[in-house]
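Lecture 7, part 2: worked example. A protein chain together with phosphoenolpyruvate.
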Amino acid sequence: TPDVRPLVAGNWKMNGTRQSLTEIKAMAQGVQGPLSQHVDALICPPATLLYVATALSTDTPLMIGGQDCHYSTCGAHTGDISAEMIADCFGTHVIVGHSERRTDHAETDQQVRAKADAAHAVDLTAIICVGETADERDAYQTLDVLKRQIFGSVPQTATAENTVIAYEPVWAIGTGVTPTNSDVEVAHAFMRAELVARLGAEGSRMRILYGGSVKPSNARELMSIDNVDGALIGGASLKAEDFLAIYSVY
Ligand code: PEP
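Predicted complex, written out as structure tokens:
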């Protein structure tokens, strides 16, 4: 999208121990070149590594984020973390509504929207994930699902600064299978139109990432599709070598 700064974001999911911090260090080093002037880089490690990861990437362009937050500010929610806790560890972003959260924890659009609101309240950028399942795709419901999820999960107060959309077809996550370029193009154009209809100029500049089996070998092609403003990467974000190779397609 013209005048939109791409974002290459990694989601480590439930992977990574202190040993993996060497990868964060290498990533923080690797994103310091001239590319950092016009491409953003973000890693979302597990919450246990958040604080050390931000310390390791201080004074580098690598940003660190959380993988989820609760929609409440604090209180009796054993095992959850709040947006404020992420901000307190110097995180700048938080992923909300990832399909694994929607499936494993039965999160609804309404809850995802509340999580985005909680992120915004402490100045975190919310990366709101949407995407259809294989069954929905087979039933030709992809665009209906995207419309419903964008309507339900994106706060009315979302701006191009505080919100990023990630389109992740559920059947493409961790499978090695990706949609065709034309399917990605159609989905992203549709989401762009929905965002503009909802949010006006903010929607026209809001970043829409593609996620689902992005690898060094397919990133260049996927990132060149209209309205694809970066990537959300799972498996290929665990190793600095792969993450930096994807970052370098820009
Ligand atoms: C993800 O779950 O955000 C993701 C895109 O995973 P992968 O890249 O491993 O398909």
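The longest strand covers residues 125-130. The mean pLDDT is 98. Keep this in mind for problem set question 3.
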